[in-house]
């Protein structure tokens, strides 16, 4: 059952892409900005998790929670300091600022701790479970479980809470929302906080699953998550989840068919094809729910 | 106009020619002086090494080893009664500085031979000077084939090395797999972005097929990858009884860990690229059990000659066990000393011929004979990881 095994491999990496893609898509949905610093928030999350597990002796779930809180704060700070004053600037100016923030975070990290990689301590006992001949590690099941739980929580926040309602309203029409008495600034900050918390969670999960983290680790997963968000339809939350999973599985099967060197090329090919033929993504405009 | 320009150009070319000839002539004179003068009471050997900069630890390790060897030789009466004097120059781990350091050693210090830099790139930067000035150079650890052999297949007459070249480790691994582990169906998982790994994979494949084995699966990855589960799952489906993984420790650590998680419990093997404490951090001691690497040398080798060297080195260096670079630096001096002794002359050409004719020279990193391409044919050491530490396993002879 090699295919089952590959499917599990694909879904594991896909759920990490999906968690990061959610942040991209939420921020885009609300202020039409591709937040290229998002991958670096993911990196910070991985390091917070690393420090809390190895230096402060926290368990996996406390490390996950702490990392999400710190990343939420960092997300809000980034928005307040770098993006808020550019809200009425051209979109290209905001985009370039995002790239600047990304480089600032990466190299500040390198300045303080060096560029060498760190190794995640093993916190969770990892057992292989034999399912029809496929070795499914308990770790990948846990990762999948945590990711799905976080996505459900997000759906709940967006659809059932007051702040979720405000987020949907602002993304629909910021001016009208303001007239209705919604505090647009706070709503945007909340969006950044939630998106960044998810990226932080993805960082910890990545560290536990792949062991090795370094200050430039956010670049490739960040770009892949961006592709996942575009694939699903940027601005659409279910789109980001499906896009992430799909990208992970496609990449895995490209490698599995013996084209492992083409794996990244396949991801970018998907981006190009989507942008040419269906720029609105799989969950296109009609059914899209902007947040 | 055209004509004038031509004349000008020709004039400057001629000037360059004259200058070059005079410089060369001066060098030859100098060489003649140091080589021929009978009243010189020491034999000067240069050491053009990385003593600062990015790979300073390589260069200083080689220097420590070389100094021990020189101390021993001088205590035993030197070469034909003459003591060896080691003159070191720091090349700052940069190619241009390596050339400068070589020039300084040749022209100011008038050395008869040089220990070339630790890295292949820095060594290549000094090869031309060595050829032009007829000063033999020996790199202790430069493993790139193009140090001794040019792309067109011609041999650099004055360039030599003490270490084996990269692809040789692939051959050794194949012999070890076939003879010691009785592996028949092997798989290869190589870094597709590194010449080092590709070279090793190619020589491994050639040798394992020559040994009657079959390569049942070949997969590739790219440096900086973190997810290798897909390729490993593919390899697992082929049921190999041995997997060869040439590459560097940053990726290999993750590969070993993920392979064991996927239930691949066959022996895994790599080369000196695995040799780093980070590997053990990444993979964990348990996953690394039943993995092997080839290396130049092991301080745990019970061989008497090696243990004598380890003791002597520890006595001089505050009880630190010598690493592979120390051992190679030590051997490089003995390799040179042996050749100078046999050449019976301090003339660069004679030393070069003696180096090339070296046969069955017994050194710490193996007994070696120099082949037509100035590479030593020698044994390699196989180490096994046991609960997170390297343990000497065996020595594999070439062929």
CA-CA gap between termini of chain B: 65 Å
Shape of chain B: elongated
**What percentage of amino acids of chain A are in beta strands?**
under 5%
Largest sheet of chain B: 7 strands, mixed
The residue-averaged pLDDT of chain B reads: 86
Mean pLDDT across all amino acids of chain A? 89
Task: Give the strand line-up of the largest sheet of chain B.
Answer: 7-6-8-9-10-14-15
Computed over alpha carbons, the radius of gyration of chain A is 19 Å
Indicate the CATH topology of the largest domain in chain B: Rossmann fold
Strand order of the largest sheet of chain A: 1-4
The CATH architecture assignment of the largest domain in chain B turns out to be: 3-Layer(aba) Sandwich
Q: Which outline of chain A best applies?
A: globular
Number of helices of chain A: 11
Number of domains of chain B: 2
Low-confidence stretches of chain A: none
* Biggest beta sheet attributes of chain A: 2 strands, antiparallel
* N-to-C order of helices and strands of chain B: HEHEHEHEEHEHEHEHEHHEHHHEEEEE
**Assembly annotation:** heterodimer
Helices and strands of chain A: which structural class? Answer: mainly alpha
Query: Structural class of chain B, please?
Result: alpha/beta
GO molecular function, one term (chain A): L-phenylalanine transmembrane transporter activity
Membrane topology (chain A): Multi-pass membrane protein
Subcellular location (chain A): Cell membrane
InterPro entries (chain A): ABC_transp_permease, BCAA_transport_permease
Outline of this structure?
The complex is a heterodimer of chains A (291) and B (399). Chain A is mainly alpha-helical and 291 residues long. Chain A contains eleven helices and four strands.
What are the salient characteristics of this protein?
heterodimer, A: 291 residues, mainly alpha, two-stranded antiparallel sheet, 11 helices, 4 strands, B: 399 residues, alpha/beta, Rossmann fold, 2 domains, seven-stranded mixed beta sheet, five-stranded parallel beta sheet, 13 helices, 15 strands, disordered N terminus
């Amino acid at each position: 059952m090699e295919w089952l095994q590959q499917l599990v491999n694909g879904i594991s990496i896909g759920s990490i892409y999906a968690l990061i893609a959610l942040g991209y898509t939420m921020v885009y949905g609300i202020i039409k900005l591709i937040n290229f610093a998002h991958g670096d928030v993911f990196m910070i999350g991985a390091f917070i998790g690393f420090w809390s597990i190895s230096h402060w002796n926290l368990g996996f779930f406390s490390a996950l929670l702490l990392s999400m809180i710190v990343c939420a704060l960092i997300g809000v700070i980034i928005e307040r300091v770098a993006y808020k004053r550019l809200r009425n600037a051209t979109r290209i100016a905001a985009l370039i600022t995002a790239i600047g923030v990304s480089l600032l975070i990466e190299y500040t990290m390198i300045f303080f701790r060096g560029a060498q990689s760190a190794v995640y301590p093993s916190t969770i006992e990892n057992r292989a479970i034999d399912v029809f001949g496929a070795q499914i590690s308990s770790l990948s099941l846990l990762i999948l479980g945590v990711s799905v739980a976080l996505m459900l929580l997000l759906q709940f926040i967006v659809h059932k809470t007051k702040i979720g309602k405000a987020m949907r309203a602002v993304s629909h029409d910021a001016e009208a929302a303001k007239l209705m008495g919604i505090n647009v600034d706070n709503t945007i900050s909340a969006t950044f906080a939630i998106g960044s918390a998810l990226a932080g969670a993805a960082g910890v999960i990545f560290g536990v699953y792949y062991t090795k983290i370094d200050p430039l680790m956010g670049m490739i997963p960040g770009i892949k998550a961006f592709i996942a968000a575009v694939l699903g339809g940027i601005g659409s939350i279910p789109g980001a989840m499906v896009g992430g999973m799909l990208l992970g599985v496609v990449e895995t099967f490209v490698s599995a068919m013996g084209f492992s060197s083409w794996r990244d090329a396949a991801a970018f090919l998907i981006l190009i094809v989507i942008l040419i033929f269906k720029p609105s993504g799989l969950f296109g405009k009609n059914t899209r729910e902007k947040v | 106009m055209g004509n004038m320009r031509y004349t000008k150009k020709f004039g400057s070319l001629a000037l360059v020619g004259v200058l070059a000839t005079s410089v060369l002539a001066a060098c030859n004179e100098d060489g003649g002086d140091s080589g021929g003068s009978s009243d010189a009471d020491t034999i000067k050997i240069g050491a053009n090494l990385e003593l600062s900069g990015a790979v300073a630890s390589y260069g200083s390790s080689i220097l420590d080893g070389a100094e021990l060897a020189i101390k021993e030789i001088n205590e035993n009466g030197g070469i034909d009664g003459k003591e060896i004097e080691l003159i070191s120059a720091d090349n700052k781990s940069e190619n241009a500085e390596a050339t400068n350091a070589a020039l300084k050693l040749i022209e100011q210090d008038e050395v008869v031979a040089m220990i070339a830099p630790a890295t292949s790139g820095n060594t290549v930067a000094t090869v031309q000077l060595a050829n032009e000035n007829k000063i033999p150079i020996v790199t202790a650890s430069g493993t790139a084939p193009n140090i001794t052999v040019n792309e067109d297949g011609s041999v650099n007459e004055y360039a030599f090395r003490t270490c084996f070249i990269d692809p040789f480790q692939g051959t050794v691994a194949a012999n070890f797999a076939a003879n010691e582990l009785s592996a028949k169906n092997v798989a290869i998982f190589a870094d597709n972005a590194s010449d080092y790994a590709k070279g090793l994979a190619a020589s491994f494949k050639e040798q394992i097929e020559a040994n009657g084995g079959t390569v049942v699966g070949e997969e590739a990855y790219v440096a900086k990858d973190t997810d290798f589960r897909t390729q490993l799952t593919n390899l697992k489906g082929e049921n190999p009884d041995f997997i060869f993984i040439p590459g560097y420790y940053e990726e290999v650590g993750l590969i070993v860990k993920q392979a064991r998680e996927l239930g691949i419990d066959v022996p895994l093997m790599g080369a000196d690229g695995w040799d780093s404490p980070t590997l053990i951090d990444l993979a964990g001691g348990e996953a690394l059990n039943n993995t092997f690497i080839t290396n130049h040398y092991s301080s745990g080798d019970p061989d008497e000659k090696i243990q004598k060297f380890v003791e002597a080195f520890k006595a001089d260096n505050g009880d630190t066990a010598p690493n592979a670079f120390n051992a190679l630096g030590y051997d490089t001096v003995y390799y040179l000393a042996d050749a100078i002794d046999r050449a019976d002359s301090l003339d660069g050409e004679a030393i070069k011929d003696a180096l090339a004719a070296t046969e069955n020279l017994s050194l710490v990193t193996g007994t070696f004979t120099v082949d037509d391409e100035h590479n030593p044919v020698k044994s390699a050491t196989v180490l096994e990881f046991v609960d997170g530490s390297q343990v000497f396993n065996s020595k594999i002879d070439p062929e």
